[in-house]
Amino acid sequence: MTNNGTSAAATNIVIEARDVQKTYDTGSVKVYALRGVSLQVPRGEMLAIMGPSGCGKTTLLNSLSGLDDFDSGMVLIEGNDLSRMPDDRKTEFRAKDMGFVFQTYNLLPVLTSVENIELPLIVSGTKPKLAREQALASLERVGLLDKAGQRPSQLSGGQRQRVTVARALVNKPAIVWADEPTGALDSTTATEIMDLIVDLNSTAHQTCVIVTHDPKVAARCHRTIHMADGLIVRENSQAEMVAVAAGR
Amino acid sequence: MNELFGLSMTYIAIGCVAVTLAILLFVGFIAVRNPVMFKMGLRNIPRRKAQTALIVVGLMLSTLIMSAAFGTGDTLTSSVTSEVYTILGRADEVISWDTGKEPKPVNEQTIPLATVDMLRNQFPNDPDIQAFVPFLSEELSLQDQRTKLNEASPRIVAFRTDDAKALGGLRDTRGNEVSLAGNEIAVNEKLAEAIDAQVGDKLLTFYQGASTEFTVKAIVPNTLLGGTFSTGDREGAAVDYSVLASLTGKTDRADGIFVSNRGGVKSGMDRSDAAKAKLEQALSGTPYKVETFKQDGIRLAELVGNAFTTIFIVFGLFSISAGVLLIFLIFVMLAAERKPEMGMARAVGAKRRQLVESFLAEGMGYDLGAAVVGLVAGMGVTLAMIQIIKSAAGDNLGLNLSVTFTPRSMIVAFCLGVMATFLVIFISSWRASRLNITSAIRDLPETKPINPEAATWMGYFRAALNGMVVLALPVGLTLFLLGSVGMLLGLPLVLMGLVSPWVYLLRGSNVALPRELRLAEDPPKWPWILGLALPVIGWVLILPWYFLALLLVVIVRDRKPAGMASWMPPAGIIVPPFGFVLVLLQHARTRIAWSAGVAFAFGVAGGVLTFTGLDRDSSFFFFLGVSLLFLWVAVTLRYFGRNERASFTATSALLLVLWYLPSKVYEPIFGELNGDIEMFFLSGMVMVTCGVFIIVYNADIVLPLIARLGSRFGRILPALKTGVAYPLTARFRTGMTMIMIGLIMFSLVMMATLNTNFAQVFLNDDVKGGFDDVLQVNDNNRIDNISDAIAKSGTDTSPIRATAELRVAYPFEAEVENKDKKKKDGEVPAFSRYTIFGADQGFFQATTLPMKFRATGYETDRAVWDALANDGKLAVIPASLIAPQNGFGGGSQDLLELNPVKDKFATFTLKLRDPGAGTSSTVTVIGVMKESGDTFFSLGDPNGAGTGGLVTSKQTLLDTYPDSRGQRFYLALKPGTDGKAYAKQLESGLVQASADSLQKLLDDQQALQSGFLLVFQGFMGLGLIVGIAALAVVASRAVVERRQQIGMLRAIGYQRGMVALSFLFESGFIALSGILLGLTLGLSLAWVLFTQGEIGTESEGATFVVPWLNLAVICAIAFGASMIMTYLPARSASRVPVAEALRYE
Predict the structure, then answer these.
(1) Which residue among B247, B644, B672, B957 is buried most deeply as judged by most CB within 10 Å?
(2) Of A67, A109, A120, which has the smallest distance from its Cβ to B1139's Cβ?
(3) Tens-digit pLDDT profile for residues B743-790
(4) B190-244, pLDDT tens digit by residue?
(5) Contact A119 B726 (CB under 8 A)
(6) Which pLDDT belongs to residue B889?
């Protein structure tokens, strides 16, 4: 349901967070993961979220993508208020409009590469034959068509992450969420993966939100926000991050 | 019960307690030596309460099944034993006429009272014999004049008052002494209940046409003195000795003499053998025999109890095996769950042994708890089973069952449960401890270093060498005990086998490493401590062999060659001691393909067993051996990199074909092979395992088709896709769970199907033989004309359509020529005992009893019966007479047996002879009745002739057996008549006959059979809990293991329901595969066995029926319960918080 949709549409903002707060209650200790984060991401932007461990990066990504609930505030995705969506609707929304890339790949070990990729399509109701065609096309885009019948255990780390990227993009989602997509990869493979994401972003104009520790990854994004103690404390442009990554 | 599988329960109990104590000592030793690891293990128990509860349920089942089996055995033994003691009291032996020595008519088989005096004079102060008690016994019809209720054949006994004192004297139910004089009668409780008699009632008795009135003086217990001689023969009464003597014309004579030994009711029995020997000596030359009837009764009680325990344990073996698999599965899962913790423990310095110890500590926590719970639950199951038996059997059981548990049996059940669980925990802990530290810490799949010898002959020989050495003890024992291939080879293998475990233990420690790798580490000390702590077992089985192993290791450790010449390993396999030396010299780090090695050793054992099976004509050894050989082939092919799917599928399929082969196919090749109830278990184990191999190796071909089918239902396709993908990647746990469910289903289906089919053969409507009611007439009060007698009794005869008379000569008074020269007690008697029926024209005309085989020239069953009606010298025989007398219990030692015949057989003659009168005649056999004929003749037979008899004409019977006393009438009633009600009318009118509706008797038999089936099915169904628990364990584990994947699925759009559905599909696939596998194999094997006559000739020519409803209920319960148990894990999977799951490691 559209809420405040007019303003979002008018400014072409795809993701908007307003004063989002999230607290983890571990019984004896309360951890304030998000202390009131507000953020806007326009369509087609690649946004990096950086910060030290425990600052709330992943929590913010999970809250924005609907993977996790938040305590207060508002998250609008293409004008739809996530906090008001029931779980089923949120799930459907994720299946159709979002793609995910995780550090640990999270591929199903029992399925082949192509089966892993076609899964989101099947979930969102695409005919199996069409889903297979699209999955193969997606696999081709990431350069792994020859690995279609192999299971994740038969692939290298970089190849697995490519499959993850292919899966994230197969249903042509409006937003791709990536949590440390290169965290488990060596620098060469990490560069390859980022090349792929950047390329896909520029050709398909999808919005990407990437959580990372790596300034080199952030340098590939249009904008970088820095978090500390559950708050956005700083924002850098791509040029500034390129400088940081180069050690200047 | 005192014995199990032929072993004394006392010895079994001592052995079990000793081993259990050893286990507890061992665990205690771990606790003292390594308290940290011990606590680490124990503290895992309360970590996940639901999981702990599930584990305890899984572990308790072995104990439960054993305690239920023992409890049932104890109950039956103690119930029968206590009945025997109560009924027989102080009487220990009985002296009676021996018709084998001197045949005589029953009425003349008496002993003069002078013989009693002679015996008393001969044994005045004998240390074994205390008293001789002569008695009279006769079956008299009687009627209570007040209630008008009658009893056709109660046993009326008489003892002289002074004599009876030696047996405690006749006493009423309150314990007051009763003395009988004149026409006074003391009625026992069972008879009083039957005719509703009270003290003071007048009872009219009938003996050979004369009636005498007695007055009831007392109601007495059902004991010897009150006319009850056995548990199946209860209605009785006692009268004055002189009165019964004059009534039956047995003045100064006795029907028998009870002998009471010195000592009490129980202890007197110990002198039975001595007393019998003395009495036989004293009575030599007389026509009397001495029977130790109390001892025999107690032995029978033991036999019944042991038989039931054995049956329940054999049937329970399926559940126990499934339980063992479950324990293994649980601990493999636990180990998988704890992998990172174990990896960390190893990283910080814990040794493999310590991990095993920690696991053992935890396992023993569950084990002891589960054994206690299992014991109590098993007692509960016993109570339930006995209750079902009681309610199903009713009066047919003839026994008052009271649930009893002897401490000895319960201790054995508890200890066996603890031992079985400990063993499995030990093996699974050892397996779990062999982990790669890095992979374990990061929870990655185990990776194996590359083995340069993999799939090479050198590697194979090395594996075979090690396999033979590590399994030398069982293989050597097999050779040694079976002795068929060569004890010379068996003995060195046994000796090697005793040393080899210690060698392998030392190989894993630094003490066995070459000098450059050796650190200052001592060999393990615990074998010394354990050996000393366990006198006998330790000194025989541990200390000498550990010492020897240590010595050998120390001698050879610095002589390890860099490599082994290629001829050495094969040579080592051929010469076992050389193989042992080679293993000792082998570098400790050399990789061994254990599966190939163990399979090789099994293959060797399989070869020996196959040979032994052929040598001893044993199906069990032969099929076990062949199955092991097939396993060896499959594993070997896999080792050499041959297509695993093809090797396992082909060998499993071939093995299945072998198991399905009817004996007539393989007997021409392998000769005759004999098997018994154990084949039931073996067939189930092997066939289900083969079936599971075929499924798990080939399901990936079928499942995509199912998934494609599922694509028609778009919403479930994603769930179906993941639901079927997972089970096939975890083949081990999927296969194990399928085997568990398949095994139980196989046993349930086999039992239900065979039972139904045999019931169909024995308990169908044919057994009524064209009649509705049967009247059993008192031997002393025969009826000449049944129609007149019924009319005279005032009962309406209009419902009667036809009457038939059968005269009966029982085995104790009739003999038939031993035509086929069957041996009895090592001799071939000229004649054997058998039941002969003499039927009148009415019987031949009205009966519809079907024939199994007819002689040439007789086209229809009717033609056979008509021929009998026209020619009095013709006869038909029952199917049981030509059935081989083997199987459970074997045949009777005395009764006639004939060789099998086929349809259109040539008629043959049989000579009938009365051993008493010496008269004889010859009859020509023209037909063999179906099995329903046996049931027809045994229904309502008070003499308990369990099978049928030869049927000829009444005239031939009376000519041959003039003194035969049995008489029966069958009535065919007009349509619409209530046979049951009419039988009651008949019985109340005819004092000298008991009447029953054949339909009621058939219904009672069917109810009894269904009741026992229910008990067995319920008992075996307990195993289903194992299979279902396994599914729940697998599903719960899967939720934990796949948390992150579940999170990802939810992230990409799986709805909660879809995740739950995926888990349900997964469990459903396993459950359904196991259920369908058990159903298919059980049903098909039952079909082969039944239609091919593999389990008795009874099934020949019978139509195979499938109890679909029963099977559907079994399958529905199994599947429904599986789904219910998986629902909880599936639901918890669907509720996994997405973001948290994605972070989960």
Answers:
(1) B957
(2) A67
(3) 889 988 988 898 888 888 777 788 889 999 999 888 888 888 899 999
(4) 899 888 999 999 999 988 878 899 999 999 999 999 998 877 677 899 999 999 9
(5) no
(6) 38
- Alpha-carbon gap, residue A4 to A14, rounded angstroms: 12
A64 CA: distance to closest CA in chain B (Å): 11
Chain B residues with beta carbon closer than 8 angstroms to that of A125 = 714
Q: What was the pLDDT predicted at B385?
A: 82
Closest CA of chain B from A247, distance in Å: 31
Closest residue, chain A, to B444 (C-alpha): A153
φ/ψ of B524, rounded to 5, equals: -55, 140
- Residues in chain B with CB shorter than 8 Å from the CB of A111 are 721-722, 725
Residues sharing a CB contact under 8 Å with residue B286, sequence separation 6 or more, in sequence order: B115
The answer to whether residues B982 and B973 touch, using CB atoms and an 8 Å cutoff, is yes
| SS3 state of residue B472 | helix
Query: Which uninterrupted H or E stretch holds B1115?
Result: helix B1108-1134
Q: Do the chains contact at A110 and B726, CB–CB below 8 Å?
A: yes
A23 to chain B nearest CA, in Å?
14
**Residue for token pair 């008018």:** A10
CA-to-CA distance for B969 and B786, rounded, in angstroms? 7
CB B90 within 8 A of CB B268: yes
Closest CA to B1127 of B1039, B1042, B1051: B1039
- Write the DSSP string, B241-298: HHHHHHHHT-TTEESEEEEEESS-TTGGGGGHHHHHHHHHHHTTTSSEEEE-HHHHHH
Burial class, B902, CB count within 10 angstroms (exposed 0-12 / middle 13-18 / buried 19+): exposed
**A-B Cβ pairs (cutoff 8 Å, strict):** 88
Q: Against a cut of 0.80, is the pTM above it?
A: no
pLDDT at B447: 57
Q: Would you put residue A70 in left (φ > 0), alpha (ψ -120 to 50) or beta?
A: beta
Strands A207-211 and A46-50: parallel
Reduced to 3 states (helix: H, G, I; strand: E, B; else coil), residue B546 is helix
For the stretch A154-190, pLDDT in tens is: 888 888 888 988 888 888 888 999 988 888 778 888 8
- What's the Cα-to-Cα distance from B35 to each of B40, B46, B118, B441, rounded to whole Å? 8, 18, 78, 23
Strands B815-817 and B908-913: antiparallel
Decide if B1018 contacts B316 (C-beta within 8 A). no
Q: What was the pLDDT predicted at B829? A: 83
The answer to whether residues B926 and B874 touch, using CB atoms and an 8 Å cutoff, is yes
* A92–B1055 CB contact, under 8 Å: yes
* Nearest-angstrom CA–CA distance, B538 and B532: 6
CA–CA dist A151, B38 (Å, integer): 40
Task: Supply the DSSP string of B186-248, one letter for each residue.
Answer: EEEHHHHHHHT--TT-EEEEEETTEEEEEEEEEEE-SSGGGT--BTTB--EEEEEHHHHHHHH
Residues in chain B with pLDDT values less than 50? 886-893, 1145
